[in-house]
Design a protein that fits this description.
Helix content is 60%, strand content 13%. It is an alpha+beta fold.
Amino acid sequence: MNRLSTRLLVSHAAVAVVGGLTAYLVVLALAPQLYDMRAGRMTGPMSHGGALRAAAVDAMNGAVLVGVLAGIVTAAVAGAWSARRIMRPLADVRAATHRLIEGSYEGQLELPREQEVAAVVADVNALTRRLAGSEERRTHLLGEVAHEMRTPLTVLDGYVEGLIDGVFEPDAATMAELAGELRRLRRLSDDLGALSRAEERGVELRLAVTDLGEVAAGAAERLRPQFDHVGVRLDVVPTGGPAIVTGDADRLAQVVTNLVGNALAATPKGGMVRVMTVATVDEVVTEVADTGSGIATQDVGRVFERFYRIPSDDSERTRTGIGIGLTIARAIAAAHGGSIDVTSPGRGHGSTFRLRIPAGGQRSSGGHAVRP
């Protein structure tokens, strides 16, 4: 009785039995009385009236009983067919979930006619597509991490062998090269660790009353030498007044640094990146707009997914990183009760990222983890 198909069959049969039994009892009680009423209106002599009455009532009851049994059998057959029809898509869903467990994310289930079952099938199809995308990004991540690690490790290996063989001298220049490659490995490790902490244990915040405009301007100005080096204009618009939020200044600066750094990477020589902060009654918005490569419509909704990187054209500068900076930035914004959104007219027309943090608040001391 724990199987859904059995319950459906039994429920159909139970309804048929109850309905048929009710009809039989009603006929059994009313048939003699109705016969007497009709027979009493008839004129003319009647022979063997009592026997005729009994025969007629028995025939009627027998016919009703046969009809009830036929109805029950028909209901049972219809119930079995209905249960099979409902259980077929559920069996497909079960098979699909087993394929997901085994790591196979190919194929989509056909939607059945029943709306409720179709909704379940649609959710399973969406889950399959989501897991397939996650698996693709995970595989891509492994390749990206291997690539990011391979270059510095190759350089380190070459320098160490050169030092052992006496090809290189252990002077300051050689040590500087080694230190640079080690910092690259450390940065990769820190990025992966930051993502793990943000998604598993929450974001550690030290909240205090902070001027987001000053934080954003300071973070952008620290990157100005990089803008000057590649010939991209950086325009930091003055706030024109306080932009007070309750937040972790270091974490907010990390978010702005990530947004401005991404804008720089996407903007060619001669382009411009504008950073401005606007305070309203409800929120403070830091906007980072660029005139760079822009974002295609199909990529706008995915730029914040972990390990996802916007496909780049061959003409663009080589993009660095493994695609987790925006994921971490969004987690930090969410921990502040805010958000990050992006708009772009399309490829080649630049993009605009907006960091939104609730305005005002009270000073809070100490640190605590906030799960986004």
